[in-house]
Design brief:
Tetracycline Repressor, domain 2; 10 helices; DNA-binding; about 0% strand; mainly alpha; Homeodomain-like_sf (chains A, B, C, D); DNA-binding (chains A, B, C, D); homotetramer
DNA sequence: AATGAATGAGGATTCATTCAT
DNA sequence: GATGAATGAATCCTCATTCAT
């Protein structure tokens, strides 16, 4: 399954194609420099902040020369975008598989919230980068980020449509606004958690968030 | 009413007292330089983006010398913070007055969403600055912004507490999470609207958003 | 006596003439702003260094407005020059009187060294300004300083000429070079003392210095 | 001989090893950028004065980009310090070799004065920088300069100690004060020469200065 | 492919000085 | 005379990117 074919790798400038054959040959400590640099970028940007994170710092962390970065990425911005694309792609694939077998939309929504939180909880550096540093960019870059996000938002839309069809969700639901509520709520919760230095457990908030999203704050006895 | 006295003006070194008499005398083009610069900053930052907006551009737009900026603001960052503080203070006061006479928490929530959207709709430049440019800052600054936001979030909390007490809202509501849902949803909706170049009417979305926040996406017949 | 009439006050831009009549009227706490500013400058420049000492700091220390400085001094440089001129003038007058009654050139030289050191010892702030801060200026200003110094150097020359005539000093003495030795030695000694934070007694070095200047480092048994 | 190993090169971050092979290959116009920049700095600072000498001027004179300066020097101040360190190091080594073979302390002292004057005479730009521009700095920098000077002052001390031991100099000599006389005299003489636009011959003053330092101004028939 | 020395555009901020009051 | 708000020129340094090796 790949409903998310719109997330393709924009790697025209990459000189070496990461062919399946090519990767099979690589030893463990020889993981492709591309991923090596992305992993270094997550750590370095999380530690320093995007604007205080010089390309040379990423290069040092990745164990490559400054110039090597530019064999794999068009510019500094492209590292950030690629990083997000790469992580988002993995996230969406995992999430799709997790959700696949479930019957109800409500259950799928819970799993979405839970797993969103889990991914961030499992990688604090990544959480800092996506919740804080990724936003420190101009409108142009924000549009690219939104483009990458579309795959995730589509996942939400799918759940909503399924829920409406099987009667779990209100038939008159405005999909776009509901999606914005769901994503906005998850995102705000995650950002607060990061701003509070991850000092409480994020994943355990998922059921309550799920409850709020399904029933709202109203009193329905 | 002013529960939000914690939002005070940080401008201690300003020598000119804003006497009522003093202000009455001022011509339109002589409004205090402090506000003059803030207004210029909103326009200039919205047009250029925070990082592309040189202090000299703000000064030119404000009709003052570059150095004059530094008589009223500590540095470029302080302009951004002060701008947000100033606007937020006004917003919270207006909102407090609007909400004051209403009986139900639900009605108050609707007014909050509506007015939040209206403020942004009435000043597209301000919307761009608060939804996009204000975020392009490091964690330290984000903490200051959050501090200023507290007054607004407190307003939400007050509504929620009132709603719980009078039975409108679920008694078991987690105030913090619910506030994050409400703010997250409003914020995400507003940001999407800005990212779409304000091309649809934001205020008219308020009732639907309100409905979602109260009842969630579930089907409650 | 005033052989040093070449040290006149270059005060063309000073608005109020310090007439004798005018000064007689002044109360103690109303000493002319001119001296008030100079005293403030000595303290402030010594504390902060010439380049870190803003005109506004001097004004604050003197208890006057920034603009007032410019009623008494042409510019910041002029404060430094005037300060040195004022202090040097006093110094030369005092020294002249002290030396006047003495019979031998050697004794006069000793008194010169001693008093030079004593003046600096009695006012550490002044010592810092003359030995360190006054030098942090461009060549043009250094020429003006040298001009003011001429009065002092002339005093040395007079002693030397007298010493040669009465047979105390070597008849073939090169006045200019000897004066440079004397002044250079005193100045170097004083600067070292300031750089060492005045941590030893300067005045008590005078006899040894005097001995060195008269007899040199050679062994004359 | 190199008793002055305490003057080492502070340029730790320089990546290029000065291999003998490497240097042999270099054409004249390819001399290491470090020295290239220092030479440019001497000329440019002498011409413009330290404070009027923009880093970009030095870069232009050196034929490198502005940024290149900062690959070799920490900041503008570091150029000045390094320049002095570099020249002083050479000077001390040359002087040590020249003095090495001589028998009497008096002869060594004469050579020291002569060569001090000769170095300055041979490079008027360097003379301006060391006698005037180097002094236009704050106390912190002066301390660094003094530190570099220590090597030279030690040379003087060595001569004095030798002179005392072999009976040439007075046994009761205060080394520190005598060193201050010698250095102060040389320095004052040199500064006067620079302030007079090098318009007379400095080196030929050495014997007279030497005579003064050894015998003082007194009349010893 | 990989390197890293070299490049050079770009901007926030300070502070001596002025001048309307 | 005194004030102090306003002015605006002037510059060091960073760091993303290139390209010769």
């Amino acid at each position: 399954m790949n409903d998310y074919s719109f997330i393709f790798h924009s790697f025209q400038h990459r000189k070496i194609q990461n062919k399946v054959e090519g990767e099979r040959v690589l030893k463990n400590n020889q993981k492709p420099k591309y991923k090596q640099i992305i992993d270094a970028a997550v750590i370095t940007i999380a530690e320093n902040g995007y604007h205080q994170c010089q390309v040379s710092k990423i290069a040092k962390q990745a164990g490559v020369a400054d110039g090597t970065i530019y064999l794999y990425f068009k510019n500094k911005e492209d590292i950030l975008i690629s990083l997000f694309k790469e992580k988002m792609q993995q996230f969406i694939q995992n999430l799709s598989e997790i959700i696949a077998g479930k019957n109800t939309a409500a259950e799928k929504l819970l799993l979405l919230v839970e797993n969103h939180f889990r991914i961030l909880s499992e990688d604090h550096a990544l959480a800092i980068v996506t919740q804080l540093e990724l936003r420190q960019t101009n409108k142009e870059l924000r549009l690219k980020i939104n483009d990458i996000l579309k795959g995730y938002l589509q996942l939400i839309d799918n759940i909503l449509e399924e829920g409406i069809q099987n009667g779990e969700f209100a038939p008159a639901l405005d999909i776009r606004l509901t999606r914005q509520m769901i994503f906005g709520t998850i995102d705000e919760t995650a950002t607060n958690w990061v701003m509070n230095d991850h000092k409480y457990d994020l994943v355990s908030l998922a059921p309550k968030i799920h409850q709020l999203l399904i029933h709202g704050c109203g009193n329905h006895h």
